[in-house]
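User: tokens in, sequence out, please.
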């Protein structure tokens, strides 16, 4: 049992840990605003830009939420559980709000809701979320590798080799998990509960998930292309794909709230030279704020009760784990 002092200390640490990403975002944005005139950047946000971008933004959110819901439904079904497409969409929308705070909190919340709605154990639910996350990471890495192969430079052969190694690693990982033969001491590793969903997933399901995540990434690239079109900025397809892959990786790091700050700095640096820095900063702010606002709205309007449930359950389980330590 924890003493009152230990409990207060633990809660204070939780508050500090939860607030840190917001301080990081504020510090990074403050640094960027000291370099680039904010008033000039905001001046680029015109009615024309807004009208051009809002349609693709709404379409992107609806399409990607449908893709997420289908992924959840298929993974749950393959594990012998049942989560309808509507429920899958609602629990994913609920976790958008949590992911704004921290990607890991969002994943934990999704695992909690998957456990309760699919009526499976926590380990099995976490394994299902882990399987989907694997394809998230793999699709972003594949986008960067594929785009790199089209770069005209002397290092083209190296990039093609890296793509081959990436594909080999992905395939090799699943072969390792699904191999029907004994691998000695490694059997204990591949039988961990977190690997149960990837281990038991059928080949058709893995192919389907890969295609769904590829469509997800493709829609993200299309949204970014719509952003540049809204601002009348010309950008090559290869540069756009490469830069977005880097942005996705960096923005997902749990160091800033919703990727704010990190996303703006990376955006301005990667697309430097295509337009004035103030215009690039304006585009990056519209892109990030637009995504955060629409996803938060989806979660709040359609799944606010699930959000409260996921957050309270995640906190309760963390408290239980801390009490038992």
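Assistant: Sequence out:
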């Amino acid at each position: 049992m924890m003493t009152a002092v230990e409990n207060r200390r633990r809660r204070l640490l939780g508050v500090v840990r939860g607030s840190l990403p917001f301080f990081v975002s504020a510090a990074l944005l403050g640094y960027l605003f000291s370099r680039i005139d904010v008033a000039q950047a905001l001046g680029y946000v015109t009615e024309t830009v807004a009208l051009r971008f809002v349609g693709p933004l709404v379409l992107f959110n609806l399409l990607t939420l449908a893709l997420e819901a289908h992924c959840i439904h298929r993974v749950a079904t393959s594990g012998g559980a049942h989560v309808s497409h509507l429920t899958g969409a609602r629990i994913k929308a609920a976790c958008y709000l949590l992911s704004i705070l921290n990607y890991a909190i969002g994943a934990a919340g999704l695992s909690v809701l998957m456990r309760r709605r699919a009526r499976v154990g926590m380990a099995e639910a976490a394994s299902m979320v882990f399987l989907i996350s694997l394809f998230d990471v793999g699709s972003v890495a594949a986008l960067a590798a594929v785009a790199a192969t089209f770069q005209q430079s002397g290092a083209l052969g190296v990039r093609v080799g890296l793509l081959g190694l990436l594909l080999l690693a992905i395939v090799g990982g699943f072969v390792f998990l699904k191999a029907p033969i004994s691998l000695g001491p490694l059997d204990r590793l591949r039988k961990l509960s977190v690997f149960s969903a990837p281990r038991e997933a059928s080949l058709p399901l893995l192919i389907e998930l890969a295609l769904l995540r590829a469509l997800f990434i493709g829609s993200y690239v299309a949204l970014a292309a719509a952003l540049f079109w809204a601002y009348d900025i010309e950008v090559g397809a290869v540069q756009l794909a490469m830069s977005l892959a880097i942005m996705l990786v960096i923005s997902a790091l749990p160091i800033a709230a919703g990727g704010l700050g990190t996303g703006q700095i990376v955006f301005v640096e990667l697309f430097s030279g295509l337009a004035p820095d103030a215009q690039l900063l304006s585009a990056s702010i519209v892109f990030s704020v637009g995504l955060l606002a629409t996803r938060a709205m989806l979660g709040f309007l359609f799944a606010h009760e699930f959000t409260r449930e996921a957050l309270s359950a995640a906190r309760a389980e963390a408290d239980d784990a801390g009490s038992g330590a």
